[in-house]
Amino acid sequence: VYNSNRLNLIRSTQLTNIGSGNQRAPLVAEFLDRQSNQRFLFMVNHLARGNNALRHQQATLLNQWVGQQNLPAISVGDFNFDWSVANLGASRDAGFDNMIAGGAWRWVRPSQIVMSHCGANYNSILDFVFVNNLAAGWNGTSEILVKPGDCPVNYRDDLD
Length: 160
What we know:
This protein is 14% helix and 30% strand. By secondary structure, it is an alpha+beta fold. Strand 2 (27-33) and strand 3 form a beta hairpin. Helix 1 runs parallel beside helix 2.
């Protein structure tokens, strides 16, 4: 979903080499912003939750992929990196470090750090916005939206 009055879709693809079996392949769209004449890549991800080794490999492959791009890139989605809210990321999944290794991606860190999912056993961020170096100078922000009732007391996470 995008604003077709502002953005022109140039191409879209799935990165089928990132993922395995029933894992979702990242979706990538190349857009042209009609107002600025800027081309950029926008990627949506959902990395493996129940397979740590695969998730770490996916993050490494995303790091390698973005290093080969010559356009600004934005990557969003559920990365399942379990970045700890309680200790401000001192505890986190190794996939986070694989993703940002060598400065390939930069996290557009929200000003307010709150968990991004419901689950009594987790106090972490799973959902992220990353940009590559070519987009790092853009004036972007991210926010984890919180509203009353998001996580009802009787919520049951399938992974709990």
